[in-house]
Amino acid sequence: MNDRLCGFWQAAARLWSNYLDRGPGRITPEFWRQLQREHDQLVDDLNLESSERREAVHTLMSLAQDCAETSRGLCFVTGEAGLVPRRDQHKRFERALAILASSDGDSTDE
Predict the structure, then answer these.
(1) From CA 71, how far away is CA 22, in angstroms rounded?
(2) What tens-digit pLDDT sequence spans the chain (110 residues)?
(3) CA 4 vs CA 11, 27, 44, 59, 105: distances in Å
(4) Where are the alpha helices (DSSP H) in 23-106?
(5) Which of 16, 33, 44, 106 has its CA 20 to 30 A from that of 85?
(6) Are the C-beta atoms of residues 34 and 14 closer than 8 Å to each other?
């Protein structure tokens, strides 16, 4: 994994941990800003990464934005139970993190 991709992965993992610890609508804003900065630095390098890694980066940014900028995060809002985690989105976030974590530095397209 190159340095920029590693920095992005670390920022995404910190944001995810913060989301799981604090819950929807309560992410520490600095974690989102850091992920955005890491993404901005990574954008030029994304074309050199595999399509699977590019998709993982896009998935993480989309889901992280929901975590950081909406009060519901990655949850359903119900009248009876309140916020109910959307397990499918949690799994997508964790799968995208795993894809980047398993990057072996090979940046050839698949």
Answers:
(1) 12
(2) 788 999 999 999 999 999 999 999 899 999 999 999 999 999 888 877 789 999 999 999 999 999 999 999 999 888 888 888 899 999 999 999 999 999 754 444 44
(3) 11, 23, 10, 17, 12
(4) 29-42, 51-69, 87-101
(5) 33
(6) yes
Residues making up the chain, counted from first to last: 110
φ, ψ of residue 22 to 5 degrees: the values are -100, -25
For strands 82-85 and 75-78, give the pairing. Answer: antiparallel
The residue assigned the tokens 């397209």 is 109
pTM for the whole structure: 0.87
- CB 57, CB 46: distance < 8 Å: yes
The first and second tokens of residue 89, run together, are 């989105």
pLDDT at site 108: 43
CB atoms within 10 A of CB 110: 7
Cβ atoms 27, 74 nearer than 8 A: no
For residue 16, give Cα distances in angstroms to 2, 13, 43, 50, 103: 21, 5, 21, 23, 19
